Amino acid sequence: MSFAQVYTRSVVGLHAPKVIIEVHLSQGLPALTIVGLPEAAVRESKDRVRSAILNSGFQFPNRRLTINLAPADLPKDGARLDLPIAIGILAASGQLEPEVLSGLEFIGELALNGELRQVTGSLAVARAIKAEGLALKLSQTIDANEQTQSEPSHLAQTPKLIVPIDNGREASRVDGVTILAAQSLKAVCSHLQSLVDPSASYASLSVVQPSPAPQQVGYQVDLADVKGQHHARRALEIAAAGGHSLLFTGPPGSGKTLMASRLPTILPDLSDEDALEVASTYSVADSDYDYGTRPFRQVHHTISAVALVGGGSRPKPGEITLANKGVLFLDELPEFDRSVLEVLRQPLEAKQITISRANSQMTFPANFQLVAAMNPCPCGYDGDTSGRCRCRPEQIKRYQDKLSGPLLDRIDLHITVPALPIADLQSAQAGETSKQVRERVAAAHQHQLKRQRKVNNELSPSEIDEYIKLGDSEKQLLQLAQQRLNLSARGYHRVLRVARTIADLAASVDITSAHVSEALSYRSKE
Questions:
Q1: Is 125 in contact with 110 (CB distance < 8 Å)?
Q2: Of 238, 144, 206, which is closest to residue 503 (Cα–Cα)?
Q3: Count of CB atoms situated within 10 Å of the CB of 472
Q4: What is the pLDDT of residues 187-236, one digit of tens each?
Q5: For 33, phi and psi rounded to 5 degrees?
Q6: Handedness of CA 217, 164, 83, 207 (dihedral sign)
Q7: pLDDT given at position 270
Q8: pLDDT tens digits, residue range 118-152?
């Protein structure tokens, strides 16, 4: 046999499209050619693969080798193709039986001695294999229902993925895919040979058992650490209950960062599918992630627009995607470059970001909660009773004008956080714990999901008209507020969403004037 096919996956953005590696041996001077839009790491794989095959006790064919990566118009990068390329060469040269490769997919980087090294994106690959397998089973089930009893149809078997041993635990979180983890190329080949002759002394790879999901997600911090600041704590609870964005304004040391970092601890636990989506994003980005927790991304004010929203010649996820299903915290908001902040306007509304390049367009999820913090003036002490602020009015105005009106209009809750006297800190009793607040937040979430199948902050204008009904007194109150606060149409809708969340926290079916008044108080800063 001088031809073999091996299946693997590339990683493009957060997706993992299938790649077919075709290996052909022909007569001619010894050479190895890789075609099919390979990038640098893939082109260099031929040297790693040659050494790994020889050091694993196999022969590298002394013939002309052509390796095609199909589809040819899909860019391939990363060293995850090393293992399937090596398997294809061994199968094409007759050292492995090509028939045993059916139903198997491979990813893994090879060391020169044949050891397998960890690669990025294994969770995204496993999720893509599962999705493809479910689609195939569905189509075959439909075909089977259309056939007669004399023409039975066999559903697809559970797909199998062979990964480096360091990727086994991560990939096994996806149910419906059999994960086999190997230490080396030699171990993979031994497993494939055992499929041909089970009676021989070849060692098989064991199936990686999925890690049990944590019964309770744990965080290192707790809302009980926040003393006093009852108004800000209330706003934090409302933001968590409805998925609203939040802006803290106050002097240095008033607890803005402390409270922002506690927001993930009072959010409801992620569903299994959401936890897998978040973990898959971090797997592609090669970042550490505590499985099951809500992401909390705190970025420095020197960040670039590309690092914030994602991009590059081959688009990669940015901080807003890494904060998906979690919290994005921007401290010292006016210190950010204005052009960087303006790119947040569209993702805050659409909950996703689309990055376009000359040859591709890619969409990343960006369903995050924005929490920002700022000082009231350049020195930070404007309005302090001590009178230590020396900023001139034009300096304060210039400082606050760094934030555009359209961006501020997209932030639901504007909270002033005063400095607490030391005596109050010493005498203040411990507040509610994150667990206590999370129970109320989770109950409000359930009300929203039962009523409209989404959180309040995601309601469209037409859905607002359907699910948020106001009485005459509430309508009059909003009309008066619109005149005094100069509410835009967007601001008006955001007030309605916040009022609906406040009512949900109170387990109230109707929105009362008290709920509307409290919602308006969080925009009075404008």
A1: no
A2: 238
A3: 7
A4: 999 999 999 888 777 888 999 998 776 667 788 899 998 888 899 999 99
A5: -120, 130
A6: negative
A7: 92
A8: 999 999 999 999 998 876 665 665 555 655 444 44
Domain 223-229+243-430 is found in CATH 3.40.50.300: yes
Q: List every span in the chain annotated with CATH 3.30.230.10.
A: 3-196
Look up residue 505 and give its two tokens. 């926290």
Sign, CA dihedral 280-281-282-286, equals: positive
Domain with CATH 3.40.50.300 in the chain: 223-229+243-430
Interacting residues of 205 by C-beta distance below 8 A, sequence separation 6+: 162, 180, 181, 182, 187, 188, 191
- What is the topology classification, in CATH, of domain 3-196? Ribosomal Protein S5; domain 2 (3.30.230)
Q: Are 22 and 5 in contact (CB under 8 A)?
A: yes
CA dist., res. 445 & res. 435, Å (int): 15
- Mean pLDDT, the chain, rounded, equals 90
pLDDT of residue 80: 95
pLDDT in tens, 446-457: 999 999 999 999
pLDDT of 153 strictly over 60: no
How far is the C-alpha of 129 from the C-alpha of 171, rounded, in Å?
Answer: 11
Give me the half-sphere count of Cα atoms (radius 13 Å) on the Cβ side of residue 360.
Answer: 13
Query: According to the model, what pLDDT value does residue 133 have?
Result: 82
The answer to whether the peptide bond before residue 71 is cis (omega within 30 degrees of 0) is yes
d(CA 468, CA 460): 11
In 367-435, where do the E strands start and end?
A: 369-374, 413-416
